Amino acid sequence: MSEKNYRFIDACWRKPVDYTPIWIMRQAGRYMKEYQDIRNKVSFLELCKTPELAAEVTILPIDKLGVDAAILFSDILIPVEAMGMNLEFGDGGPHLGSPVKNKSDVDRLIVPSPQEKVPFVMETIKLLRKELDGRVPLIGFSGAPFTLASYMVEGGGTSSFVKIKTMMFKDPETIHALLNKVAKTVICYLNAQIEAGAQAVQIFDSWAGTLSPRDYQEFALSYTKQVIDGLNRENIPVIYFVQGNPGVLELVKQAGSDVIGVDWRINLDVAWNRVGYDVAVQGNLEPCALFLPKDKLEERAKEILNQAGGRPGHIFNLGHGILPQATVENAKFLVEAVHKFRIQNTEDRTQTRE
Amino acid sequence: MSEKNYRFIDACWRKPVDYTPIWIMRQAGRYMKEYQDIRNKVSFLELCKTPELAAEVTILPIDKLGVDAAILFSDILIPVEAMGMNLEFGDGGPHLGSPVKNKSDVDRLIVPSPQEKVPFVMETIKLLRKELDGRVPLIGFSGAPFTLASYMVEGGGTSSFVKIKTMMFKDPETIHALLNKVAKTVICYLNAQIEAGAQAVQIFDSWAGTLSPRDYQEFALSYTKQVIDGLNRENIPVIYFVQGNPGVLELVKQAGSDVIGVDWRINLDVAWNRVGYDVAVQGNLEPCALFLPKDKLEERAKEILNQAGGRPGHIFNLGHGILPQATVENAKFLVEAVHKFRIQNTEDRTQTRE
Questions:
Q1: Which of the four pLDDT bands, split at 50, 70 and 90, describes residue B92?
Q2: Partner-chain residue, chosen from B165, B291, B303, that has the shortest CB–CB distance to A291
Q3: What is the DSSP string of A92-136?
Q4: Rounded to whole angstroms, how far apart are CA atoms A268 and A314?
C-alpha cells in the first residue's frame, strides 16, 4: 500500500499513463457507512471544521474504492461563511442568513484571510499530506465565483435562479461588485490550499449551466478566469468543472484550466473534440449509472474509455457527484473496471503495433 | 383586428414571412393580472377543465401582447390524470398520488380515450377556433413520453430524477412498459386535439435534459419519435422542445419534427447549424432577460434575430416559460421589438440587392 501513484497528476498534464486514473466527485459521502457513522456523531459543519475528522473521511474512498486521487473533504460554502455570512445546514440543504440584496450588503462582506478565518482547511490539508504519504495526490477545491455568488444571493439552493438573474439584469453594478469580491476570496483561498500542500485544485461551477452563452461569459467565465490567472499554479494542475450546459464548452476552455470537467449530458468524444486536445478532460459517467447491474455498468465505463480513445489526458470521473443511493460495491467495481480496461487497451494497441 | 395572421404557420414550414413571428411559452400565466383575477375565483384544475375560462385565458396574450400564435391553456399532466392517476396542485406544484413503482402499477393504467376522459380539452379548442376566427393560429400541446413518465414515477417535480433513473437502470422492463403506454396516450391525445382544430402541436420534453445522449436515445427520443410518427400531421406542423441540454440537439432532430425548440443555453446560430437548415427552429431568449431595461432587452432580441440571419424558418420565443416575475409591459415590448426589427432587416436586405 506504499506505492506512489501519480497517474492522476500525469493525466492532468496529458502525460501517458499505464491505466486511466479515476476519482469520484463527492467520493467521501453519504453512500458510505463509515461516513454516516461519523456524521451520526458530529454535525456536517463540525466535520468540515475538525481536521482529524475531515482527513479521516477524505481518506475513506482511497482505502475502500482504490481511487487515484483524494479530494479535500469540505463544503463549498466554507469561504462564503468566512466572508461574513451566516451558514446553517438543514434538511433542505445549506441556508445562508441575510442573503445579499444590494451594494451595501456586498460592501459589508470581507475578503477573508484563509489563515485567520478558515485555518482548519489548511490544517486538514497538512494532515492529509502526511497521512497519505504520497499514495495518491490530494486535490483542493473551491466553488467558482458565479456559483458561490448564486448561493449568496439566493440564500441557498434554487432551481430557478430568479434572484441572482434579477440582480444580473436589474442591478449589474451590485452583482459585479459581489463577483469581484468572491473572486478575490477564491484566489486567496485556493492559494492557501496550494501553499498548505494541495497538489491540484478543482473549481466547481455547479450552477453556471443555468446561463446563456453571453451571460456565462460576463458573469461566470470572466471571474473564473480571474481566479485561475491569480493562482500560484506552477506544477499545480487546475481543473474547471461547469455542470449543466454542454452548450458553453468551447467558452469554458477560455478560462485557461489544465483540465476541463465534462458532465454526462454530452458524449466525451464530442466534448473533447469541441474543447480541443491541448487540454485534458475529466468525466463523465451519468451518476445514476451506478444503479446498473455490474455488466451494464462496465459496458458504460468502457464506452467512455473508448470515447477517450486511449489519448493521454483523460481522468475518469462521474459527470456529477455520487448520489447517497449508490453502493460502495458498485463504486469499487467501477474503479476496478476502469483500471482493468485501460491495461487491456494498452495491450491491444501494443499487439497492433507488432 | 380581423387580419388573418399565418406568419407562425408559414415560419414552421420555413416559408418567407414579412417579420419573424413570436409567441411565448406560458404566455397565459401568473405574470398577467387578468389571469390572476380568474385564478382567484377558480382552482388551477377547474380553470383547465372549464372550456370558457380556458379559452378566455388562452386569448389574453393575443390581445395584450400581440403574439402571433395562441397556445391551448391546459396542464401537461391532464392526460396523466386521465390514465388513472390522482392529480393535485399544492404550493410545491403538481402532486401525483401513488407514483408508479412497478410493472403492476403500469398495468393498472389505461390508455384513455380523449373524447371520453378529457372532452373539455377538445371543447376548449373548438371554442378557441371560433373565438380566434383566424386572427392567429392555435397550437395544441402535450408533454413528451419521458417527461410525463418522470412525473408519474417521481410523483411530482424533482431536481435529481433519482426515482425514474433508478427504474431505468434497475427495472428497464417496467419503464419501457410505462413509456409505451404513455406514448400511445400522447398519440391519441394530440390526434384528438388536431381533429378538434389545433393548427400545430408542440411536444414538451421539459425533463429530457437530465439524460445522457445514450439514455436520451433509449428513453426519450425513441418514444417521442413513436408519437410523431403516429400523428395525423398533414398540414399540421409539429414542434419538439427539449429543455436543458444542448448536448443532444443533433439527436433531437431524429424525432422528425418540423420545428425544433431551442433553449437559451446555446446560441441560436450554433444550434441551427447543428440541427441543420432543413428544419425550422424556435427560441431562444433567456426568460429572465425580460427583467432587463428595455434598451438591453431589445439588444438581446436583435442579437437572436441576427443569429437567425433572416433565414426563413425562425419562430421567436423564450428559451423556457415566462416567469411570474416578468411584466406584461416588457413582454409586450419584446413582441413589438421582434416585429419591428424584422421589417428593418428585410428593408436592409432589399437595399443590399438594389
A1: confident
A2: B165
A3: TEEEEES---SHHHHHH-----HHHH-HHHHHHHHHHHHHHTTSS
A4: 10
Question: What is the helix, strand, coil percentage profile of chain A, to 5?
Answer: 55, 15, 35
What is the count of structural domains for chain A?
1
Q: What is the CATH number of the domain that holds B314?
A: 3.20.20.210
Per-residue pLDDT tens over the stretch A80-89: 999 999 999 9
Q: Do B265 and A213 touch (CB under 8 A)?
A: yes
A224 closest CA partner among A207, A204, A209, A200: A204
First CA to last CA distance, chain A: 34
The answer to whether residue B251 is domain-embedded is yes
In a domain? residue A2: no
C-alpha A161/C-alpha B215 separation (Å) is 27
Cβ proximity of B106 and B100 under 8 Å: yes
Range of the domain at B77: 7-353
DSSP code, position B77 = T
Q: What is the pLDDT of residue A342?
A: 61
Residue B12 identity (one-letter amino acid)? C
Q: What is the dihedral of CA A212, A214, A216, A217, to 10 degrees?
A: 170
Q: Does any domain span residue A97?
A: yes
Phi-psi region of B236 (alpha: psi -120 to 50; beta: other; left: phi over 0): beta
DSSP A250-300: HHHGGG--SEEE--TTS-HHHHHHHH-TTSEEEEEE-GGGGGS-HHHHHHH
Distance between CA atoms of A234 and A245, rounded to whole angstroms? 29
Find chain B residues with C-beta within 8 A of A215's C-beta: 286
* Residue with the three cell numbers 485567520: A116
pLDDT along chain A (354 residues), means of 10: 83 96 97 97 97 98 97 98 96 92 98 98 98 97 98 93 97 98 98 98 97 98 98 97 96 98 98 98 98 98 96 97 97 97 52 35
Least CA distance to A325: which residue of chain B?
B162
Rounded to an integer, what distance in angstroms lies between the CA atom of residue A254 and that of residue A220?
11
User: Do the domain assignments include residue A1?
Assistant: no
The interface predicted TM-score (ipTM) is 0.94
A6 is catalytic: no
**Residue A64 corresponds to which cell in the numbers above?**
475502500
Model confidence pLDDT, tens digit, residues B263-307: 999 999 999 999 999 999 999 999 999 999 999 999 999 999 999
pLDDT for B342 equals 62
pLDDT of residue A90: 87
User: For residue A343, how many other CB atoms are within 10 A of its CB?
Assistant: 12
Most B CBs within 10 Å, among A245, A248, A295, A300, to test the B interface: A245
Contact present, A216 and A145 (Cβ < 8 Å):
no
Among the listed residues A137, A186, A145, the one whose alpha carbon sits nearest the alpha carbon of residue A11: A137
**Closest-CA residue to B315 (of B38, B27, B19, B61):** B19
DSSP state for residue B218 in the 8-state scheme? I
- The pLDDT tens digits for B108-160 are 999 999 999 999 999 999 999 999 999 999 999 999 999 999 999 999 988 88
Catalytically annotated residue among B6, B31, B35, B151:
B151
